[in-house]
Amino acid sequence: MATSKAISPFRLCSLLRLQKDPALALELFRSPIPNNDAKKPFRYPLLSYDLIIVKLGRAKMFAQMEQVLHQLKQETRFAVPEALLCEVISFYGRARLPTRAFQTFESIPSFRCKQTIKSVNTLLNALLYCQEYKKMREVLLSINEYGRPDACTYNILINASCVGGDMEQAWATFNELLRNGVCPNVVTFGTLINGLCLNGQLQEALKLKEDMTRDFKLKPNVFLYTRLLKGLCQIGELGWAFRIKDEMVRNKVKLDSAIYNTLIDSLFKVGRKEEALGLMGEMKKSGCKPDIVTYNVMISEYCREKNFEEAYKILDQSEKLKPNVVNYNMIIGSLCREGKSIEANELFQDMPRRGCAPDVVSYRMLFDGLCSFMHLKEATFILDEMIFKGYAPPSRSINEFVSRLCKEGNFQLLSAVMTGLGKGNFLNEDIWKMVVSLICRMEKPSESFELFDTLMVP
Q: What cellular-component terms does GO give this entry (predicted)?
């Protein structure tokens, strides 16, 4: 995408911002002026570096991002903002590349930039994402070289303890925060409450919410409410969950789809269907649009009721949101369990037209369903397609399928299946035992030898 004429630094930034394709954006960044017009070096503005580095990092084009960073390091006209290098550390953290994240942190001074507690926090968070707890402890040993730990630092450390299930250490870190005169924020309490909910300590979580509002004058946010509400629903405390919902309304905290989905799902599970449908109506009236999870909840309920007609209707309604494979798998699995494997196969075959490709779970459920109800020809086709796509069928399912073919004496299908299994390297000792046993039981030796030759996979 080299330009035909020179563009200004300001124009380059505008074009980079507009370009959605990171590869094309990089080509534009590298060639802002034609080669034959390069009378003097192009003066890249800092913003152009920022834009291209973020685009490449989000696209995980790390080799190209490093090339741009190397070029940026050579610039002497400006110091690189710490925030940009924190972005790079975060990109490596999300990509589970902790060593690269640590190397970027250590290289910050070479960009004429000072490491502060902000970049330390970013590194700690990246290491936590990668579950590099030992490396986190190493960073903490020298943290005072970069500044005084702040609320963000302690929030990350509390989260690390909660994720590891060590609530005693989480509380110890919280108490250290208070001793050091650092003011906890809503994220601090939300992180602790999340940990308590994960560990089933709902009473302690509810008390902490009250302490937060009374002693620290902080208002719960939607994340904190959502975590509490989900925890209460998980232990069947729907009364408490609805009191949390009412409190959110009083405090003018907007209820999102996650809140409604959790409550609707919980009501369905305890058989309070009318209340669930009523809440669904309330959700729509409040202006909160159903999302894919909402449709998953509805489909799951109708499948449980074996009301497949309504499940199909919900699936059709969700097409505007591009239903995911989970939606289809719920219906396919339920149909197969009810002996409607041919109907499940029809839905399965229709998935690509609806813009959703079947996954390995789709194939396995349908294959097992077709086998269970002796639709052997259809099952053979699904098995062949599964192997072609590189999906591994479970050994138990294959063994049962071959056993059924042997009992049926369907030598034509058996031959096709053995060939496919051989190509996919899925033949095992049990399968050969069944086939040899079948051949030995055949009355005519000539037919048995002919069958054996047919089943021998090249």
A: mitochondrion
Please choose, from the candidates 170, 176, 178, the residue with its C-alpha nearest in 3D space to the C-alpha of residue 197: 170
Q: How many domains does the chain have?
A: 1
Domain extent, residue 419, equals 394-458
CA distance 439 to 13: 74
What pLDDT band is residue 438 in, cutting at 50, 70 and 90?
Answer: low
- Does residue 2 carry a pLDDT above 70? no
Q: Which residues contact 281 (CB under 8 A, 6 or more apart)?
A: none
Residues 39 and 27: their CA atoms lie apart, in Å, by 20
Residue 441, domain member (yes or no): yes
Structure-block tokens of residue 380: 């053979």
**CA 266 – CA 272 distance, rounded (Å):** 9
CA atoms of 362 and 329, how far apart (whole Å): 6
- Reported residue count of the chain is 458
- What predicted TM-score, i.e. pTM, was given to this entire model? 0.76
Q: Is residue 426 part of a domain?
A: yes
Q: Is the Cβ–Cβ distance between 240 and 232 less than 8 Å? A: yes
Half-sphere exposure of 161 toward its Cβ, with a 13 Å CA cutoff? 19
First-to-final CA distance of the chain: 50
Is 141 contained in some domain? no
pLDDT of residue 198: 86
Burial of 317 (0-12, 13-18, 19+ CB in 10 A): middle
Identity of residue 414: L
